[in-house]
From TrEMBL:
Similarity comment: family membership: Belongs to the fatty acid desaturase type 1 family.
Protein name, as recorded: Acyl-lipid (9-3)-desaturase-like
TM ranges: 112-133, 139-159, 171-192, 254-274, 286-306
Pathway assignment: Lipid metabolism
UniProt source species: Rhodamnia argentea
GO BP, sorted A to Z: lipid metabolic process
Length: 448
């Protein structure tokens, strides 16, 4: 059919369809009405809400396997996007993704899942037996640390299983998710997927990315001083006197707070499951969390006194705090922006908002794939065993299109993160100038 005979819609008209009950997106120039599909979308409602009213092709190909294309036609509303063009960066990105698919990289998952589950089982058995059979407080302290390390490993599995199928069948995949996430770690996999999908789609958007919304404890930009509205939590993030005090000291409190950041994940899990939001398999999720809150307190109660019980809990929380720090390193010191993600520069926003961690191959187990954060954000369905392999191709693509590819050592990334927190803390302390002096510079240099 000739373009002139098609029903077409302009970018401006498409942008007007971005409200609840009226959500349209464009994929490769065809316009789809996803207003009803949003209720059943496996990735949740937030990605569709964030990208509604614009072209979402890059995000679609990043998060969906080839078989997903066959389901699009039922949502096609008959319109085509006027003047639809594809940037050279997007063309090369989609070509690279297609090459990885032809190589079978998305299907070859290696043995990470088997090794991780065996490792988790060993850590669990040793930790429990150490508590039950030993009378040494030092053994109990070590067991608490091992429990924290178990939670780190379960976190990597939960992260992987939220992006792609880590088991041979969907049912087995779901079992692994609930077992390692809800039952063993006390974290709802439904909450994790909802939160993490929102983060990936709106990477480093101050008002759309929940992974940057830690008021009143932390802010990474002075823009939070204007009390931004969170489109993830549907509330205003007030920068009040309490927030100012906590933020003013955030570069000192960062690591101590990370030692107990897991408490927030516990609270967020229950908050979602007890809310009126649609949660798939809510019953399974709640039962999994109840299982954790039975076995973990019971295990702690087996210790001989309250001193050792507190020591065990603090050790387990502090060790798993390493993982919470790792989550922050990849984004806190990277470029940020205000507003929803933009489909026409999705590739660039992902690279600008992420930081790779330089490490030797023998340390890959420690980072769980997050050391290749840029690669992971561009190809989220790719098993982590292939991220090091594709890294040179991603570097070359970024260099070709003059896009950032930032990386730093683990220690340098920590220094950069603390530097970002310190800069915002010093601005928050300026009581005479509640709006920082460099806010204009930030506004000019922020896009979105």
């Amino acid at each position: 059919m000739a373009d002139s005979a098609r029903r077409s819609i302009s970018l401006e008209e498409l942008a007007s369809h971005n409200k609840p009950g009226d959500l349209w997106i464009s994929i490769q120039g065809k316009v789809y009405d996803v207003s009803e599909w949003i209720r059943d979308h496996p990735g949740g409602d937030l990605p569709l809400r964030s990208l509604a009213g614009q072209d979402a092709t890059d995000a679609f190909v990043a998060y969906h396997p080839g078989v997903a294309w066959q389901y699009l036609d039922k949502y096609f509303n008959g319109y085509y996007l006027q003047g639809y063009t594809v940037s050279e960066a997007s063309k090369d990105y989609r070509k690279l993704l297609s090459e990885f698919a032809k190589m079978g990289l998305f299907d070859k998952k290696g043995h990470i899942t088997l090794v991780s589950m065996c490792f988790i089982a060993v850590l669990f058995v040793i930790s429990v037996l150490g508590v039950l059979w030993s009378e040494s407080k030092w053994v109990h302290l070590l067991c608490g640390g091992m429990m924290g390390f178990l939670w780190i490993q379960s976190g990597w599995m939960g992260h992987d299983s939220g992006h792609y199928q880590i088991m041979s069948r969907p049912g087995f995949n779901r079992f692994a998710q609930v077992l390692t996430g809800n039952c063993l770690a006390g974290i709802s996999i439904a909450w994790w997927k909802r939160n993490h999908n929102a983060h990936h789609i709106a990477c480093n958007s101050l008002d759309f990315d929940p992974d940057l919304q830690h008021m009143p404890f932390f802010v990474v930009s002075s823009k939070f001083f204007g009390s931004l509205t969170s489109y993830y939590y549907d509330r205003k993030m007030n920068f009040d006197a309490v927030s100012r005090f906590l933020v003013s000291n955030q570069h000192w409190t960062f690591y101590p707070v990370m030692c107990f950041a897991r408490i927030n994940l516990f609270a967020q899990s229950f908050a979602l499951l007890l809310s009126n939001k649609k949660v798939p398999n809510r019953g399974q999720e709640i039962l999994g969390l109840l299982a954790f809150w039975i076995w973990y307190p019971l295990l702690v109660s087996c210790l001989p006194n309250w001193g050792e019980r507190m020591m065990f809990v603090i050790a387990s929380f502090s060790v798993t705090g390493i993982q919470h720090v790792q989550f922050c390193l990849n984004h806190f010191a990277s470029s940020v922006y205000i507003g929803p993600p933009s489909g026409n520069d999705w590739f660039g926003k992902q690279t600008a908002g992420t930081l790779d961690i330089q490490c030797s191959p023998w340390m890959d187990w420690f980072h769980g794939g997050l050391q290749f954060q840029i690669e992971h954000h561009l190809f989220p369905r790719l098993p982590r065993c292939h991220l090091r392999k594709i890294s040179p191709f991603v570097k070359e693509l970024c260099k070709k299109h003059n896009l950032p590819y930032n990386s730093a050592s683990f220690w340098k990334a920590n220094a950069m993160t603390i530097g970002t927190l310190r800069a915002a803390a010093l601005q928050a302390r300026d009581l005479a100038n509640p709006i920082p002096k460099n806010l204009v510079w930030e506004a000019v240099n922020t896009h979105g």
